[in-house]
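# nightly structure sweep
# worker-07 picked up a monomer target from the shared queue
# config: single-sequence mode, recycle default, output format = structure tokens
# input follows
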Amino acid sequence: MAQDMRIRVVDRGPYIVEGNVPLYEKAIEPKDGGYVWRDIREIPHGEVYALCRCGRSRNPPFCDGASHKRFKGRGRADPRPYDERCIVTEGPGLTLKDDERCSLSRFCHRKAGKPWGLLPGSDDPVLAAEIVRACVECPSGRLTAIAPDGTVLDEECEPGIWIIQDPEKRVSGGIYVRGRIPITGPGGEEFEPRNRAVLCRCGRSGDMPFCDGAHISSMYRDDR
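# output follows
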């Protein structure tokens, strides 16, 4: 059950995933001026499993129990809740919240433009819809669209984990955590459960344990 699901970040070690969390592998693909997900496979797993976060496992996406021995992976992420970290920008039709936590997954790249550029025209229903889709489809949970009456324009995700592949960039991406699964840091700190978040698995993020897109600059591939 969802309330039993949890991810624990081990100091200098893997992510311990508890509660029989569904695990899938999916690819980011360009389509019609934007991006979509392509299903690759459902990954068999146990009730509890360990996912690699050092980027060196010989059995990705799982930890192989040995490759992280020299891995430091110290937490650097700001543990404050989203609303305490985000930048708030008001438009004529929508308000946009942005915590700048980005995995470079590019789902905010819409055919009409990016949400920041579209915001001044957000009183146009077509542009407003594009902004909302950019927010809803962002795996990092970076962006949030707010209606004039204060309603958060979001869609709840089913709890699960997606292992990201990014063929367009010729890299393997992070670990997409969906559905407000609690995440506990290596020091016991509790991160705010988010509808969407991406964890680092290349071992090079400057925002540990979250992904900051370093897998692209480091050309991380889990099939090497």
